[in-house]
Amino acid sequence: MIAPTATVDSFLKAHSEFVKVYKFAGVPDFLDRTNRVSGNSDLMFGSLARVVIHQQLSGKVARVFEDRLLTATGAVSPTSLQLLGFEGLRKIGLSTAKSKALLDLSRRVDDETIDLSAFHGMADDEISTQICTIYGFGPWSAHMFLIFEMGRLNVWAPADLGVRKGFQILYDLGELPSVQEMQNSQDRYAPYSSLATWFFWRVLEMPALVKP
């Protein structure tokens, strides 16, 4: 396995425009994780459940709901979520959409419509396609799972508003690039598109680059 710093060094040699972002943000956190979910169905299920909970919420608020769910179930699993049921999920404060998504995820994994244990040997687009069949899961959810939970290095999120804004700021563009323009840029960062995605998010945190 390539060391995180070696991966970043290789990326920066090809894309020196990110050096200032790296000096500000450091090594992407998803590169430095030692406990990957790949190959562990229980961990992958828990990770997908977290992705649902984190949709459109700040990290702090999402963790409150994670704690509530863990308290209500004892252990987040397909069986425990189905036992808790829709009303139980709503009772801990999860939205209707998120409750439905968690239950659909649990049913599909339970009946093996989706085989999480097979994800480790699958390509990114194959995993993304399967994840997007689950109620409430879209490309953003698949991208977050692939990057932060599976540590895949070549994931590009062209429709993500934060990535588009970061791209605009870093390259000093007059207007926000379209999703299609972003899609056309993916090959530019291969095989480390995940690093570009992460660094573009960090651009938005840099006062020296973000204009008032």
Which key features would you list for this structure?
about 210 residues, mainly alpha, Endonuclease Iii, domain 2, Endonuclease III, domain 1, 2 domains, 12 helices
What topology does this entry show?
Blueprint: H1 4-14, H2 19-25, H3 41-54, H4 59-73, H5 78-91, H6 96-110, H7 124-131, H8 139-149, H9 161-170, H10 179-183, H11 186-189, H12 193-203
Helix pairs in contact: 2-12, 3-6, 3-8, 5-6, 7-8, 9-12
Task: Explain how this protein is built.
- There is one protein chain.
- The protein is mainly alpha-helical and 212 residues long.
- The chain folds into two domains: 4-33 and 155-203, Endonuclease Iii, domain 2; 41-149, Hypothetical protein, domain 2 (Endonuclease III, domain 1, Orthogonal Bundle), CATH 1.10.340.30.
- It is built from twelve helices and no strands.
- The protein has helices spanning 4-14, 19-25, 41-54, 59-73, 78-91, 96-110, 124-131, 139-149, 161-170, 179-183, 186-189, 193-203.
- α7 (124-131) crosses α8 (139-149).
- It is globular and about 50 Å long.
- The N and C termini lie far apart (41 Å).
| CATH class type of the largest domain | Mainly Alpha
Approximate strand percentage: under 5%
Kindly state the percentage of residues in helix: 55-70%
- Low-confidence residue ranges: none
CATH homologous superfamily caption of the largest domain: Hypothetical protein, domain 2
Please give the domain count.
2
CATH topology of the largest domain: Endonuclease III, domain 1
Number of strands: 0
The separation of the N and C termini measures 41 Å
Structural class per helix/strand content? mainly alpha
Quaternary structure: single chain
Order of helices and strands: HHHHHHHHHHHH
Mean pLDDT: 90
Indicate the radius of gyration in whole angstroms: 18 Å
Secondary-structure arrangement, i.e. CATH architecture of the largest domain: Orthogonal Bundle
Shape: globular
Number of helices: 12
Taking the sheet with the most strands, its summary is: none
